[in-house]
C-alpha cells in the first residue's frame, strides 16, 4: 500500500472519528472547489488540490484519496464531479460533498479525472499538510508515524514544511524520523542516509527498529550505521520492556496482595488455615455482580458508582460468611491446623456449589465503570486505568488494615488474643468475640479483593480456586504473622512472575516460581521476615 | 580446642546467642567434670532452658565453644547425633509418646541402632526385654506397662520420661525441672532417684525448688541474664549478696 | 525371611482383609466371565471396571494414610504420585498402539504427529518395554518423592507448611502437564489405548485380569503397610507424629524415617495410578488437580486414619457415594462431599473404624491430634 493511500485512510479514520478536531466549511463553499478538480488540465487540477487542502475540511482527504485511486469522475453534461463506483455496466455516482446518492449513469456520459505523477505528489503533500499540519499534536504525531511506516520519498516536502512549523518536541522528533525513513528509502546520497539513520535512532520506536532491520545487512556506511542504530534502539526498547513488565508485575503483585492480605490475618495472625479463603474472594465478586445488576436495573444513572457501592456490600457478605464459618466450624478446631484445613476445604466446596446453584456455572459479566476503562501511555509503557486503580486500591486496603491493627481497640485486642489467649481472657477481653471479628475482618478483606478481581478476571464459581495457592505462597514467602512481609512477598512474586514470563512463557514462568518458592521454604521455613527465637519454637 | 576442655565432660566457653536482638545467653562459660552432678538455678528468663537447647543442638549459639568429652564440637551436630553421643534430655513439660504403651515408650528409648532400616527389621531380644523390665521396675511402672502413656498421671509421666532417659544409657543427663508439679513425696523420691543415677552418670539439673536442690546436695550454678552469676555450694551462693539481690530484688 | 516377616505382621483384622481381597480377586472376575448374564450373581463388565477403579483408589488412600495417619504428614499432593505412575503406564500403553493410531506412525503417538514432532523425546524411550515401564511406575514417583522429601524433611518443614508445599508441587505439575511441549499430550493426556502385554485392553478377560491385579496389589500393599507400621520403625513413626522433637532428643534421625515412609507411600500411590489408567482408559492432567489429592485425604479421614483398614473402607464408601450421587443427583454431590469434610473432622476424628470400635468395645481409643500439634501455625504473631 502506498504512503498516499495509507496516509489518506489514516486521516479519514482520525478525522472522521474525531469530528471535533476537524473543521468543516459550508457545502456551498466546498462544492465549487471539488468541481474545479475536473474543470481543466493538470495545472488547474494541481491548483484545485492546493485550494482544497487550504480549506482544512475533513472531507478533503477522502476526496483526494479517491482522486488518487482514479475513482473521481466528471459528468459530461454539467461538469459536476462525483465518486463513481462500478455497478454492472453503469456507474453509481455519489456526491463527494454531501455524500448523497446521485443515481446511476452510463459509462459514456462520464469522464475520469486524470491523474499523473505530478498530481499524485500534489495529493500527497496536500494530505500530508492536512494531517501533519493538524492543530492536534496527537494527530500530527500519528501522521508522522504513518509516514514512517510507509517510508515514501514523496512525503519529504510535506514533512519538511511540517517540521519547520512544529513546536512540540516529541512530535517533531517523530517527523524527523519519518523524514529520515523516507530519505533512506529514496536515492539520496550516502552521507544523507547515514545522517538520517541517526535521526531514526534518536526516535527509537519499535517501528523505527523494524524499518532499520531492512538496512542492517546493507554494505558500507549505511549498513554499519543501521546496525549501530538498531542495537541502540534495541537496548532502549529493552529498558522500556523491562519497565512495562515491571508495571505488569506490580499489577499482578497488587492482585496477589489483595488476595493474600485477608489470609495474612486469618492464617498469619490467627493461625487458622482457611482453604475457603478463595471462596470469600469469590463471594465478594458475586456481591459486586449482584449490586451492579441491581443498579443496572433500578438506577442506571449510578452505574459509574456501582463499584463503590459494591465495596461495603462485598465486605459485609464475605465478613458475615467468615464469621458464620468461624462460629460454626473453625472454633471447634483451634490448635488443630490440619483438621481446620480439611474442614474449610469442605466449606469451599459447599460455597462453590451454592453459588453455582444460585447464579449458574457460567461466567458472569461485571462491567467497567467509565472511569476505570481505557488506558494511557507513559513513555512506551501502556497503563490501563483498571490496573492502576487496583494497585491504588490494594495499597489503600493494606494501609487501612495496618491502621486498624495498630490504632483501634479491636486491633489491640486482636493482637492481645493472638499473643496470649489466657492472659487476654484474664484481663477481660472476650476472646470468642475477638476471634469471630478477626476472622470476619480477614474474610471481609477477601471480599474486597473480590470487587477488584471482578474487574479483571472471570466471575465464576471457580474464581477463588485460582488464588488460594498463590495467596498461601505469598503469606508463607513473606513470613507468617508479618503484614509487611505479605506486602513485600506479593510484590516480589508479582514482579518476578512477570519478569520471567518473556523468557520462559506464562505457564513455565509460574512453574519456575512455584518450584523456587518450594525450595525457598525449605531454606527458610518461616519466610522472608520470620520472627526468630524461642517464642516461635515453643 | 582449648586445653582447658581436656578431661571435662561438658565444656561451654564464652557462649552467646540472641533472638531478635534479645541476648538470651551472654558469654556463658561452664565446665562439668565426668561423674559430676550440678544444679542450675536462676530466675525466669535467666537462660536455663536456652542453655539446654544449645547443648542438645536445638539452638545454635552465635559465638562460643560447646565441647563434649573435651573434644567433640556440639555446635556442629544435630539433636539426634548429640543424643547418640550420650546426652539425654528431660523436658520441663513431660513429653512422652502418648499413643504408645508405657513399655513401648521405654523400648523406643532403649539404646540401639537408630537407623530406619535397622528399626524396620528390628526384633526385640531377650536382653532388651530384660533391660526394659528392669527399667520399668526402677520407675515403678511395671504394673502399668500395657497402659497407654496418655493415661498416666502427671507424676507418672515425669517418671516415665526419666525411665526413657535412663534407657538411652546417656553419659550426661540434662534434667529440666524434674520436680515441677509433683507432690512432696514424689519430689523426695525423685531426688533419691537422681542421686542414684548420679553415681554412674553425670547430671545437670535445672530446678526452681530450693528444697529439692538442697536435697540433692551438689554444686550449684546461678544463672542470671544469660551468664553465670555465682557458683559453689548452695549455702555459699545463698549468702552471695548479688544472688540475694537478683532473687529478692532491691 | 521377608515373606515370613510380612505374613507375621498381620493381625486378625489384617488377615481378614487380605483374605477378602484375594477372594474378591477370584470371585468377581468369575462372576463376570463365568456366571451367565441372567444370573443374579453376574457381574457386568461396567461393575467390574468400576470396582477395579475403587480398589486402585483404596491403594492410593492406603498410601496417604501411611504418611498422614502414622507419621502426621498431611500430603495434599499424593495425587501427583498417583498421576505420575499413571502417566508412566499411559506411556507404555501409547507405545503399544504402534501403527494403529489415526496417523499410523509406527513410533510416534498421534498427538506428537499432530504437533509435527519428528522424533520421540528422550524420556519416551524404553516405554515400549513393559518391564521398563513398570519400573518407571515405581521409580518416577519414588525419586520425585525422595528428592522432595529429602529437601523438606531435612529443613524441618512440617505441619501445614508441608501440606501447602505438597499442594504447590502437584499444582506446578498440573500446569506443566497441561503444556503441549512437555510431551505428555497436553490437555488431552494419553488415551485410545489398544492393548496391554499383548492382550486387547477392552476385552472382558483383560478387564477381569486387571481387576484381579488391582485386588492382589491392594492386598500386597496392605501387607507391606501392615509390616511397616507394626515394626519398630512404625512405632518410631507414631512417636514422630505425637512428639517430633522428643523423638529427635532420644536419638532418632526423624528426617530419615519420614523420608522412608514418604517415598514408600509415593511408590504405592504410583502403582495405584498405574493400575487405574488401563481400567479407565485415559490419563490426563486433571489427575494432578490439588482438589483430587485433597479428596483422597478425605477418603482416609472418613474410613479412619491411623488404621490400615480405614482408608480402604473410606475410599470405597466415598467413591461409591460419588458414583451414585453423580448418577442420580449430580448437583448434590459437591454439597455432600463438602459436608463430609466438615462432619468427619468435627464429629468423627477416627472415622468409620473409630465408630465401629466404639460400638464394639464401648470406648474409643484416646484421640491424639494427628499432626502432634507441637506447634501451631502463626504462633509467631
UniProtKB/TrEMBL annotation, chain A:
The keyword Chaperone does not apply. The chain crosses the membrane at residues 246-273, 305-325, 337-355, 388-405, 472-496, 502-521. GO terms for cellular component: plasma membrane. Keywords: Amino-acid transport, Cell membrane, Membrane, Signal, Transmembrane, Transmembrane helix, Transport. PANTHER family: ABC TRANSPORTER PERMEASE PROTEIN, BRANCHED-CHAIN AMINO ACID TRANSPORT SYSTEM PERMEASE PROTEIN LIVH. The gene is urtB. InterPro entries: ABC_transp_permease (IPR001851), ABC_UrtB_bac (IPR017779), BCAA_transport_permease (IPR052157). One of its GO terms (molecular function) is transmembrane transporter activity. This is Urea ABC transporter permease subunit UrtB. GO terms for biological process: amino acid transport. It is a multi-pass membrane protein. It is found in: Cell membrane. Belongs to the binding-protein-dependent transport system permease family. LivHM subfamily. Residues 1-22 form the signal peptide.
From TrEMBL, chain B:
Transmembrane segments: none annotated. Keywords: ATP-binding, Nucleotide-binding, Transport. One of its GO terms (cellular component) is plasma membrane. It comes from the Bacteria. InterPro entries: AAA+_ATPase, ABC_AA/LPS_Transport, ABC_transporter-like_ATP-bd, ABC_transptr_urea_ATP-bd_UrtD, BCA_ABC_TP_C, P-loop_NTPase. GO terms for molecular function: ATP binding; ATP hydrolysis activity. This is Urea ABC transporter ATP-binding protein UrtD. It comes from Pleomorphomonas diazotrophica.
From TrEMBL, chain C:
It is found in: Cell membrane. One of its GO terms (cellular component) is plasma membrane. It comes from the Bacteria. Keywords: Cell membrane, Membrane, Transmembrane, Transmembrane helix. The chain crosses the membrane at residues 56-85, 129-153, 160-178, 208-229, 259-277, 297-320, 332-353. The keyword Acetylation does not apply. It is a multi-pass membrane protein. Signal peptide: none annotated. One of its GO terms (molecular function) is branched-chain amino acid transmembrane transporter activity. Pfam families: BPD_transp_2. InterPro entries: ABC_transp_permease, ABC_transptr_urea_perm_UrtC, LivM-like. This is Urea ABC transporter permease subunit UrtC. It comes from Pleomorphomonas diazotrophica.
Amino acid at each position: 500500500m502506498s504512503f498516499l493511500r495509507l496516509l489518506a485512510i489514516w486521516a479519514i479514520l482520525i478525522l472522521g472519528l474525531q469530528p471535533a478536531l476537524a473543521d468543516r466549511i459550508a457545502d456551498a463553499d466546498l462544492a465549487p472547489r471539488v468541481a474545479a478538480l475536473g474543470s481543466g488540465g493538470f495545472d488547474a487540477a494541481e491548483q484545485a488540490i492546493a485550494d482544497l487542502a487550504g480549506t482544512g475540511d475533513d472531507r478533503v482527504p477522502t476526496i483526494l484519496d479517491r482522486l488518487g485511486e482514479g475513482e473521481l469522475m466528471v459528468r459530461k453534461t454539467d461538469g459536476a464531479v462525483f465518486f463513481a463506483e462500478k455497478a454492472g455496466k453503469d456507474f453509481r455516482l455519489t456526491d463527494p460533498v454531501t455524500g448523497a446518492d446521485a443515481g446511476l449513469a452510463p459509462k459514456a456520459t462520464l469522464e475520469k479525472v486524470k491523474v499523473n505523477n505530478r498530481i499524485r505528489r500534489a495529493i500527497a503533500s496536500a494530505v500530508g499538510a492536512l494531517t501533519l499540519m493538524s492543530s492536534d499534536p496527537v494527530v500530527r504525531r500519528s501522521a508522522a508515524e504513518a509516514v514512517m511506516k510507509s517510508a515514501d520519498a514523496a512525503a519529504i516536502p510535506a514533512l519538511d514544511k511540517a517540521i519547520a512549523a512544529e513546536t512540540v518536541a516529541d512530535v517533531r522528533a517523530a517527523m524527523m524520523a519519518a523524514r529520515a525513513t523516507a530519505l533512506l528509502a529514496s536515492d539520496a546520497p550516502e552521507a544523507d542516509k547515514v545522517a538520517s539513520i541517526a535521526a531514526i535512532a534518536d526516535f527509537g520506536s519499535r517501528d523505527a527498529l523494524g524499518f532499520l532491520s531492512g538496512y542492517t545487512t546493507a554494505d558500507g556506511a549505511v549498513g554499519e550505521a543501521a546496525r549501530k542504530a538498531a542495537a541502540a534502539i534495541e537496548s532502549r526498547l529493552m529498558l522500556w520492556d523491562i519497565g512495562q513488565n515491571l508495571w505488569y508485575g506490580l499489577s499482578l503483585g497488587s492482585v496477589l496482595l489483595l488476595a493474600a492480605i485477608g489470609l495474612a490475618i486469618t492464617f498469619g495472625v490467627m493461625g487458622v488455615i482457611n482453604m475457603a479463603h478463595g471462596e470469600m474472594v469469590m463471594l465478594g465478586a458475586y456481591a459486586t455482580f449482584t449490586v451492579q445488576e441491581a443498579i443496572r436495573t433500578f438506577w442506571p444513572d449510578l452505574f459509574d458508582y456501582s463499584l463503590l457501592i459494591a465495596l461495603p456490600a462485598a465486605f459485609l457478605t464475605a465478613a458475615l460468611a467468615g464469621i458464620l464459618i468461624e462460629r460454626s466450624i473453625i472454633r471447634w478446631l483451634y490448635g488443630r491446623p490440619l483438621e481446620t484445613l480439611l474442614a474449610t476445604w469442605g466449606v469451599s466446596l459447599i460455597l462453590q456449589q451454592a453459588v453455582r446453584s444460585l447464579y449458574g456455572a457460567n461466567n458472569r459479566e461485571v462491567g467497567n465503570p467509565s472511569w476505570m476503562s481505557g488506558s494511557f501511555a507513559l513513555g512506551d509503557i501502556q497503563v490501563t486505568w483498571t490496573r492502576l486503580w487496583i494497585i491504588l486500591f490494594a495499597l489503600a486496603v493494606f494501609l487501612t488494615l495496618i491502621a486498624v491493627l495498630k490504632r483501634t481497640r479491636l486491633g489491640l485486642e486482636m493482637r492481645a488474643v493472638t499473643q496470649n489467649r489466657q492472659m487476654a481472657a484474664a484481663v477481660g477481653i472476650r476472646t470468642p468475640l475477638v476471634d469471630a471479628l478477626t476472622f470476619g475482618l480477614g474474610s471481609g478483606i477477601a471480599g474486597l479483593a473480590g470487587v477488584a478481581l471482578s474487574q479483571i478476571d472471570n466471575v465464576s464459581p471457580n474464581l477463588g480456586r485460582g488464588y488460594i495457592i498463590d495467596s498461601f505462597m505469598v503469606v508463607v514467602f513473606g513470613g507468617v504473622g508479618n503484614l509487611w512481609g505479605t506486602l513485600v512477598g506479593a510484590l516480589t512474586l508479582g514482579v518476578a512472575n512477570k519478569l520471567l514470563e518473556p523468557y520462559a512463557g506464562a505457564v513455565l514462568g509460574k512453574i519456575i516460581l512455584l518450584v523456587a518458592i518450594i525450595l525457598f521454604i525449605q531454606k527458610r521455613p518461616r519466610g522472608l521476615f520470620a520472627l526468630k527465637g524461642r517464642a516461635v519454637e515453643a | 580446642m582449648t586445653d582447658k576442655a581436656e578431661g571435662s565432660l561438658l565444656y561451654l566457653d564464652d557462649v552467646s546467642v540472641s533472638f531478635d536482638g534479645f541476648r538470651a545467653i551472654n558469654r556463658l562459660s561452664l565446665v562439668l567434670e565426668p561423674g559430676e552432678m550440678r544444679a542450675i538455678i536462676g530466675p525466669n528468663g535467666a537462660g536455663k532452658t536456652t542453655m539446654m537447647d544449645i547443648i542438645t543442638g536445638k539452638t545454635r549459639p552465635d559465638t562460643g565453644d560447646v565441647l563434649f568429652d573435651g573434644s567433640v564440637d556440639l555446635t556442629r551436630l544435630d539433636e539426634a547425633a548429640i543424643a547418640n553421643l550420650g546426652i539425654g534430655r528431660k523436658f520441663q513439660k513431660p513429653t512422652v509418646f502418648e499413643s504408645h504403651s508405657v513399655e513401648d515408650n521405654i523400648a523406643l528409648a532403649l539404646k540401639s541402632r537408630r537407623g530406619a532400616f535397622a528399626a524396620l527389621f528390628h526384633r526385640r531380644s531377650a536382653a532388651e526385654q530384660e533391660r526394659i523390665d528392669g527399667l520399668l521396675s526402677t520407675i515403678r511402672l511395671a504394673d502399668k506397662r500395657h497402659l497407654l502413656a496418655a493415661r498416666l498421671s502427671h507424676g507418672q509421666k515425669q517418671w516415665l520420661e526419666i525411665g526413657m532417659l535412663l534407657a538411652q544409657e546417656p553419659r550426661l543427663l540434662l534434667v529440666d525441672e524434674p520436680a515441677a508439679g509433683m507432690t512432696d513425696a514424689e519430689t523426695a523420691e525423685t531426688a533419691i532417684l537422681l542421686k542414684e543415677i548420679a553415681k554412674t552418670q553425670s547430671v545437670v539439673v535445672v530446678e526452681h525448688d530450693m528444697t529439692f536442690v538442697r536435697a540433692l546436695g551438689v554444686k550449684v550454678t546461678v544463672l542470671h541474664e544469660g551468664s553465670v552469676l555465682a557458683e559453689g555450694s548452695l549455702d555459699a551462693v545463698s549468702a552471695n549478696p548479688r544472688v540475694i539481690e537478683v532473687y529478692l530484688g532491691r | 525371611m521377608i515373606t515370613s516377616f510380612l505374613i507375621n505382621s498381620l493381625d486378625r483384622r489384617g488377615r481378614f482383609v487380605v483374605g477378602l481381597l484375594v477372594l474378591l480377586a477370584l470371585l468377581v472376575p468369575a462372576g463376570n466371565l463365568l456366571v451367565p448374564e441372567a444370573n443374579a450373581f453376574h457381574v457386568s463388565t461396567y461393575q467390574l471396571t468400576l470396582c477395579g477403579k475403587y480398589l486402585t483408589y483404596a491403594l492410593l488412600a492406603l498410601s496417604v494414610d501411611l504418611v498422614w495417619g502414622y507419621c502426621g504428614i498431611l500430603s495434599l499432593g499424593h495425587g501427583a504420585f498417583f498421576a505420575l505412575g499413571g502417566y508412566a503406564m499411559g506411556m507404555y500403553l501409547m507405545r503399544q498402539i504402534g501403527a494403529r493410531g489415526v496417523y499410523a506412525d509406527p513410533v510416534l503417538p498421534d498427538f506428537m504427529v499432530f504437533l509435527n514432532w519428528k522424533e520421540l523425546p528422550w524420556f519416551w524411550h524404553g516405554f515400549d518395554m513393559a518391564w521398563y515401564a513398570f519400573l518407571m511406575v515405581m521409580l518416577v514417583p519414588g525419586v520425585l518423592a525422595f528428592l522432595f522429601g529429602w529437601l523438606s524433611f531435612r529443613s524441618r518443614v512440617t505441619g501445614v507448611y508441608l501440606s501447602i508445599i505438597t499442594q504447590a508441587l502437584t499444582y506446578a505439575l498440573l500446569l506443566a502437564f497441561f503444556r503441549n511441549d512437555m510431551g505428555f499430550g497436553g490437555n488431552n493426556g494419553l488415551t485410545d489405548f489398544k492393548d496391554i502385554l499383548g492382550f486387547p485392553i477392552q476385552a472382558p478377560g483383560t478387564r477381569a485380569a486387571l481387576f484381579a491385579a488391582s485386588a492382589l496389589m491392594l492386598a500386597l500393599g496392605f501387607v507391606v503397610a501392615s509390616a511397616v507400621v507394626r515394626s519398630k520403625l512404625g512405632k518410631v513413626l507414631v512417636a514422630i507424629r505425637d512428639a517430633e522433637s522428643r523423638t529427635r532428643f532420644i536419638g532418632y534421625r526423624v528426617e530419615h524415617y519420614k523420608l522412608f515412609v514418604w517415598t514408600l507411600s509415593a511408590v504405592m500411590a504410583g502403582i495405584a495410578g498405574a493400575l487405574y489408567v488401563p481400567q479407565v482408559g485415559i490419563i490426563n492432567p486433571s489427575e494432578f488437580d490439588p482438589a483430587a489429592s485433597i479428596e483422597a485425604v478425605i477418603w482416609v479421614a472418613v474410613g479412619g486414619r491411623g488404621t490400615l483398614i480405614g482408608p480402604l473402607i473410606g475410599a470405597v464408601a466415598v467413591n461409591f457415594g460419588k458414583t451414585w450421587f453423580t448418577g442420580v443427583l449430580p448437583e448434590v454431590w459437591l454439597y455432600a462431599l463438602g459436608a463430609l469434610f466438615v462432619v468427619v473432622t468435627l464429629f468423627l476424628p477416627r472415622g468409620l473404624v473409630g465408630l465401629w470400635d466404639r460400638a464394639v468395645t464401648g470406648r474409643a481409643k484416646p484421640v491424639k491430634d494427628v499432626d502432634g500439634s507441637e506447634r501451631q501455625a502463626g504462633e509467631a504473631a
